[in-house]
Amino acid sequence: MSTAEERMQILNMVAEGKITAEEGAKLLEALKSGKGGESEAKSGSGRRARWFRVKVTDLASGRTKVNVKIPMGLLNVGIKMGAKFAPEMGEVDLNEIMRAVQGGAEGLIVDVVDEEEGEHVEVFVE
Fold it and tell me: Taking the chain, what is the end-to-end CA distance rounded to the nearest angstrom?
């Protein structure tokens, strides 16, 4: 994905209310400076993983509530922002996710069903 496309994706997330304008500005600055590049990892197949995707599905309706893809180069910033949205992650340790990504994990790396909230959360490295 080109830098222009990545910028548009960030701006669309702001427009859709998925992130605040301040968070969008941080992502744009990180994209501009190349910050976060150390989180890029080669997948098990030897190719460079390019995307970090989080998908949240409503258990009752089966409808996708959230499906966000961020470039791997912005993973550090994205993880920090994600921690603000889900401060009580219970079973999920964000540091463990980072270690898995840096270690070359690919595909589905987190699969959690929250019966209380009625949500199914999946995290992918693509």
Answer: 13
CA angle 66, 108, 85 (to 5 degrees): 35
Question: Closest by alpha carbon to 53, among 39, 37, 71?
Answer: 71
Residue-wise pLDDT for 82-99, tens only, equals 666 554 555 567 777 778
State how far the Cα of 88 lies from the Cα of 16, in Å rounded to an integer: 24
pTM over 0.70, yes/no: no
Residue in the structure block whose two tokens are 């993983």: 49
Q: Give per-residue pLDDT as tens, 61-87.
A: 999 988 888 887 777 776 666 666 554
Q: How far apart are CA 54 and CA 48, in angstroms?
A: 19
